[in-house]
Amino acid sequence: MIDVLYFAWVRERIGLPRERIETSAATVADLVAELSAREDRYAAAFADLSSLRVALDQDLSDFSAPLAGVREVAFFPPMTGG
Amino acid sequence: MRIAVQSAPFDIGTEAAAFAQAAAEAGAVVTFTGIVRDLSGGLSAMEIEHYPGMTERAIRDIALQAMSRWNLIDALVIHRHGRLRVAEPIMMVATAAAHRANAFEAAEFLMDYLKSRAPFWKKEITASGAEWVAATEQDEAALTRW
After folding, report:
1. Is B132–A77 a contact, with Cβ atoms under 8 angstroms apart?
2. Which residues of B touch A (CB under 8 A)?
3. How far is B115 from chain A (nearest CA, A)?
């Protein structure tokens, strides 16, 4: 089981802030493909990966990163703090 | 070093005075404050979303880097989230060092990194709707100088 979190417009497009899913995805990209195949709203949110960022267990990572041992994955747009 | 991620407003003067007083041996204290601005003339509020847990962790990491790289005596980062009105302070950083060059540079470094590496997302609320603020290429380019 893995916790998947969504923020900002990714959260709005998918329609929920977080969910717990059962997955055998080996990498972040595999997980994205799996989610995108589920429903249109996921496919829409993940349509352009260059406009998305991913964090694994609260550290910025990238889409080719392995998911082994990861408990929390978060998807969000580029950050706009400050 | 103090990191505060909060929805509550803060007072710039009170924070700056307390910070300067605590860093008694510093020859230089630099503070920067970010304010909600209404560039288009139609902004009614700013909503700031964040990633609880990662936010504190990312800011702490950035602040620790600044502390060691510029040999700071102390550093402070306050960043708000939630709904903010025009002219309210969004965030502030303060740096204390022996000399001003380090305090200024460290504050700029903190700002550049907080802008694009701390998990906050701004949304502008206007009479005609709400829109997420897009990150700019300049924000990302600003990191390359460090």
Report:
1. yes
2. 34, 49, 51, 53-54, 57-58, 79, 90-91, 111, 114-123, 132-135, 139-140
3. 4
For the stretch A34-76, pLDDT in tens is 999 999 999 999 999 999 999 999 999 999 999 999 999 999 9
Mutate to test the interface with A, among B121, B137, B138 (most CBs of A within 10 A): B121
Predicted complex ipTM: 0.95
Q: Decide: B118 and B55 in contact? Cβ < 8 Å.
A: yes
Q: With CA atoms as reference, report the closest residue to B78 among B118, B26, B42, B40.
A: B118
Q: In whole angstroms, give the CA distance from residue B16 to residue B76.
A: 9
pTM of the model: 0.95
